[in-house]
């Protein structure tokens, strides 16, 4: 892998011709992540406890709270909140959520300085490109969780670019960040443990600190990075994926958004079940059994014994039960579980090798609903909606944001329209103040 990271970052840093399409997509990603943060700050007890215990009269203000924190607590709170509800954006070519690892470091750095929205989007696009290409190249072990790992390099790169570091300095910063990943576990998500959300919070702290630590002279190199990601964190590295068609188009244009507050692995199941119901006149009381045939990684999301809110977001039986019974997954999961009762036990998740073989082009799921008369009703979703090739409508995205913002009485659809109208010449700080997310 010698010099491959250097070549990637050189290419990204030298790219100055950012199209209007790319800038608009970057702005939509920033807005989506900001609203995910706002939602997480209001829903996560651990983050709320941190806010109550650690706020002070000085430091970085968290959006919509009116409270300030030192950099450490701000980064942890922002990163943790961003991913807590499984509504943060992701990327088809990355195993995880790039923006959640970039937004907090950019947010804190921007509030410490007066960067314009133009500068913010430039750094964001480039940090995102670096992060996604590293993720695509590094084949992580499936039993690891991607939060707090490769994404840290994207946040570090974006912060370094904002601060004016040159290409060689950014290369050193990225290699240092790649040498300081968290040791994570997928079971934290599957079993509904909120350390899974904290991985991103701490990942952002590592991303932010990597810039300063490199400035003090701390270093890593290709040999360390390659061995770590090839033999410890993962099992192979594809240099072609790191270098092929850099910024053509930019990876941020190839992201996906989510409107279901559940793990991306559940989305094809949700849509396949929904399509069966749309195509057939089926009452849930008449259902004998539901089979969900899906790919290997998604098939892990098969729990029926749900004990935490986060665990519900990684359960295909829970999500499909909600779809079939017409329950809102934004509502309290415990109330939904009471409604679902024993119905969840009728749903079986099946690891289907023929569907796994469709990866990565298709993340498919087949839903078979069998009624009491043994009739079978079938639908298959090859790729859930939300991918860059199958986008949600503006109305669907607005509905998502209104669901997320309902605890903020002052943030209505009129406010959302204002938030989306970005003047690129004003500072990030002014944009937040103009939209009542920071106090003057």
Comma- or semicolon-separated keywords:
single chain, 440 residues, alpha+beta, 4-stranded mixed beta sheet, two-stranded antiparallel sheet, 21 helices
Write the layout of secondary structure elements.
Layout: H1 4-13, H2 20-43, H3 45-54, E1 60-61, E2 68-69, H4 71-83, E3 90-91, H5 103-112, H6 117-137, E4 138-140, H7 151-162, H8 167-178, H9 187-190, H10 195-216, H11 222-232, E5 234-237, H12 239-243, E6 255-256, H13 267-279, E7 287-294, H14 296-299, H15 309-312, H16 316-325, H17 333-340, E8 347-351, H18 353-356, E9 365-371, E10 376-381, H19 394-404, H20 413-420, H21 428-434
Parallel strand pairs: 7-8
Antiparallel strand pairs: 1-2, 3-6, 4-5, 7-9, 9-10
Structure description:
The chain is α+β, with helices and mostly antiparallel strands and 440 residues long. It has 21 helices and 10 strands. Strands 8-7-9-10 form a 4-stranded mixed beta sheet. It has a two-stranded antiparallel sheet with strand order 1-2.
């Amino acid at each position: 892998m010698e010099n491959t990271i250097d070549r990637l970052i050189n290419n990204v840093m030298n790219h100055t011709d950012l199209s209007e399409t790319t800038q608009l997509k970057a702005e939509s990603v920033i807005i989506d992540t900001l609203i995910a943060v706002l939602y997480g700050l209001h829903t996560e007890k651990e983050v709320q406890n941190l806010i109550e215990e650690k706020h002070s009269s000085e430091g970085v203000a968290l959006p919509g709270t009116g409270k300030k924190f030192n950099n450490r607590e701000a980064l942890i709170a922002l990163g943790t909140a961003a991913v807590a509800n499984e509504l943060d954006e992701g990327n088809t070519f990355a195993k995880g959520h790039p923006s959640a690892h970039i937004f907090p470091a950019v947010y804190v750095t921007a509030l410490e300085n007066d960067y314009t929205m133009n500068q913010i989007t430039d750094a964001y696009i480039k940090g995102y490109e670096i992060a996604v290409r590293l993720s695509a190249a590094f084949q992580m072990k499936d039993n690891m969780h991607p939060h707090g790992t490769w994404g840290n390099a994207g946040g570090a790169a974006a912060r370094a670019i904002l601060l004016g570091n040159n290409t060689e300095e950014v290369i050193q910063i990225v290699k240092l960040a790649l040498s300081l990943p968290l040791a994570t576990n997928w079971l934290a998500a599957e079993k509904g443990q909120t350390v899974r959300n904290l991985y991103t919070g701490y990942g952002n702290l590592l991303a932010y600190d990597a810039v300063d630590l490199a400035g003090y002279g701390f270093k890593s190199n290709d040999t360390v990075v390659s061995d770590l990601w090839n033999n410890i964190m993962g099992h192979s590295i594809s240099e072609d994926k790191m270098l092929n068609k850099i910024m053509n188009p930019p990876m941020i244009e190839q992201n996906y958004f989510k409107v279901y507050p559940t793990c991306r692995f559940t989305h094809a199941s949700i849509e396949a079940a929904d399509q069966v119901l749309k195509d057939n006149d089926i009452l849930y009381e008449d259902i004998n059994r539901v089979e969900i045939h899906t790919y290997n990684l998604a098939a892990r999301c098969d729990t029926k014994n749900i004990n935490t809110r986060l665990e519900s977001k990684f359960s295909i039986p829970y999500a499909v039960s909600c779809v079939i019974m017409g329950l809102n997954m934004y509502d309290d999961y415990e109330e939904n579980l009471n409604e679902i009762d024993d119905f969840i036990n009728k749903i079986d998740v099946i690891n289907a090798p023929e569907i796994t073989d469709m990866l990565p082009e298709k993340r498919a799921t087949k839903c078979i609903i069998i009624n009491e008369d043994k009739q079978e009703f079938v639908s298959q979703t090859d790729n859930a909606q939300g991918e860059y090739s199958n986008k949600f409508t503006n109305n669907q995205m607005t509905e998502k944001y209104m669901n997320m913002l309902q605890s903020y009485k002052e943030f209505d659809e009129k406010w959302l329209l204002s938030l989306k109208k970005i003047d690129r010449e004003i500072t990030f700080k002014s944009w937040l103040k103009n939209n009542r997310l920071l106090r003057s």
